[in-house]
Every structure is written in C-alpha cells, then in structure tokens.
Amino acid sequence: MSFVLSAVLVNLPLAFSPGPANLLCVGVAASKGFRRTLPFIGGLQVLPLVYSVLVAMGASAVLSRLEQLSDMIKLLGSLYMMWLAFRMWRAPRTPAQNEAEASPAVASGFWQGVAAQAANPKNILIVVTLYSVFAEQSQSLGAGLALAVIITLCNLASHLCWSLGASTLRASPRLARYQNRLSGGLLVVAVALLWL
Fold first, then answer.
1. Taking the domains of the chain in order of start, what are their residue ranges?
2. Is the pTM of this model over 0.85?
C-alpha cells in the first residue's frame, strides 16, 4: 500500500504539470467543449499504458541505449506540437454557441489523441523516470504493472481536470475569445521547455 501511495504522490505533480498533452486537452475543450474532448482523452491514455507495460517488462534497458531514437521522437514531437499550436492560433476567436458550431481547427478524435501522445516526448521521459524512481519496488511484474495502471490513471485524472477547467472557462465569452490563442502560445512554450 505504501508503494501505491508513494507512486501516486510522485506521479500526480508530473501528470498535472502543463505539458503538451494537458495543453492539447485545454485547446480541444476550449474549441469543442468537455464532452467532445472525451474521445481525445481516451486516445491520450493508450500509449502511456503501452509504454509503462513495456518498461515494466524490461524495455527500459533498451530505451536508455537508443539515445538517437529518443532525439528523433523529441524532434518529431516538437514539430507536431508546433503545427498544433499554429492551428490553435488560427482557430476562430469567437466561441461556438453550441457544439454543432464547434471549430474544426483542433482535431478531437480518439486517434488524434493517440497521435498526440506518440509525438509527446515528455510522456516517455515520465514513464522511464517513474520506473527509475521505483526500480526496486517494480522489479516484480505485478508491481511493475501496478505502476503502469497508476501512471495511466493519474494521466486520465489530469487530462479530465485540464479539459473540464478549459470547458468551464469557455462559458465566459470574454475569456473564450482568446483561449485558443493562449493555448497555442502555451504549447509553443511547452515545446521550448522540452529543449532546455
């Protein structure tokens, strides 16, 4: 039980930090509303779970040796996030009155969520970091898989909270008018922080 509590307490700040996936949740929710963000959020959960299970099964030793692959993922992810920031920046400034009028500028489907996580280098780094922190406890497959579930559930909670917050702000026309631009700008900042 202490392992589970420790893992949750270490993972929550990482999951709730303003990274690319959380900022994309804000952008999608600001553009389309909370309910239409749910398929995107579902897609965001697939790869953290897959990566966590792979690391639990011993892939961390392989990943640590493939630094060039990590750099390539980081570069491709940064380019993808800049493209998404550009689309958010160009999204209409007036909020949709209902979900039928929602902006098509920000894709919100399940597969777009999977693609967003595939291009998110922070995701892989967090998984490897958490398994490094809990290396001793997660040596058994059961504990390693428990950590995979904890990582996924913390990510899910974070994405739901960020989306709900953005959807709540969307109700204010004054704030919603600039929310896509703010989200796009924050995504550019997140890309810059990945390279520092």
1. 2-194
2. no
